[in-house]
Amino acid sequence: MEKVVPLAMALSVALWCLVACDDKGVAKAGNTVPRAPTLSPAAQVGQLAFFDKNLSGGRNMSCASCHDPQYAYGPPNSISVQLGSDVTKIGARAVPSLRYSSATPPYSDDAPNPDGVTSSSPGGGLMWDGRAATLAIQAGMPLLNPVEMNNTSKEAVVKVVQASTYAGLFKQAFGADVFNDTDAAFNALGTAIQALETEDLSFHPYSSKYDLYVFNKAGGTLTPAERRGEVLFHSSAVANCSGCHYTGANFNGNTGLMTDFTYQALGAPRNDRSIPNNPDPIPANDDPKYFDMGLCGPFRTDHMPATPDTANPYCGMFKVPVLRNVASRGVFFHNGVFHSLEQVVNFYNTRDTNPEYWYPASNDGSGAPQANPAWALQPTHVPGATLDKYNDLPQSQHGSLDEEVPLGTGEGGEKTLASGTRPRQPGSAPAMTPQQIADLVCFLGTLSDGYQPSARASATDRCTK
Q: What residues does the Cytochrome c domain cover (predicted)?
């Protein structure tokens, strides 16, 4: 992990209610933001389109159905992969939050790191694999994806916009003749949503407790547990979170985004039926030959390996997400295999030292099954059983795996297994203690927007001490 006009103002409350997904198992993120500036005509179009269910093939979901403003423009539930307009078709990736996405630079294989020290590497771009260079391009992708909004063509989408109540505003923003060219009109719709995400402060409010703390404002005092967690977050020898989730000055004048926009291969477990009682395994993973390898496919093709067995340093790499509002999520990593922050941090801590917690095993062990911790994906393990480690990445691509602290030792090589960076040995001590993990989770909670200093914590809140 190396590093609004009256129209828009009136809609802001009513439109919040149009989302389609429910809110099972997820804590809502706050939406307190500074006074909103007047939105441009393009952004007003974007706001109306963002909540328009008619823009899906089944007229049953909008952008906000999965990017719910009450959940930091992320998923409103803990389902690994959100259902699309056609509920019989299920995708393969978790829905990311759209908050702070406007700060993301375009993808480059040789992107500069915002810390100014770390060597250039793959970075930038939108989507888990960076294949969208701009928010406008990204906004158009779900509209035509069969497992998302499931429209049959750009023409079908443009016809809906042309028949909508905001068609006149669309012409005002993009020209009276905009509907004469289908491609231009479709691209203009993406541009409108990009304008919304750029201009509307609810997409980048900077209203967390952490923001008050960093700028030394009233109500920003961290509790002892949160302060200990912050120290761990920046500790290169222990948690090393800031090695990738960079907190300093970033591109375009942004700061504290909690990402350096790079890509890492973490070896997340495969979200399939090998996980006992898995509530929503990804159907594509039923095919043992199918692998989602991020930068090297299947959704982007420019870095695909020459043959399935050819090692490729891009394989298994997924974008380092913004950590702001991470505590409001109920699903984590590109494949949604994890469902709590505690689980995620424990994975980082024990992936190498206790792989039996995370990966399936054969039946060649001996003795009685032993219980694993409650947060583990695998409820039990049999001593001596052969583990299918890093099972969501072909064996030939394991060299891409990140072995920096806390996953590995961080010693030797540059940072990956192939470069010679040494992993932690199974059975050795993890980098963090249970108390340190609890403290780190407490700190991550301070990154949620909409913080109200007047809201007193309960005396039983584990993050107060």
A: 41-148, 224-448
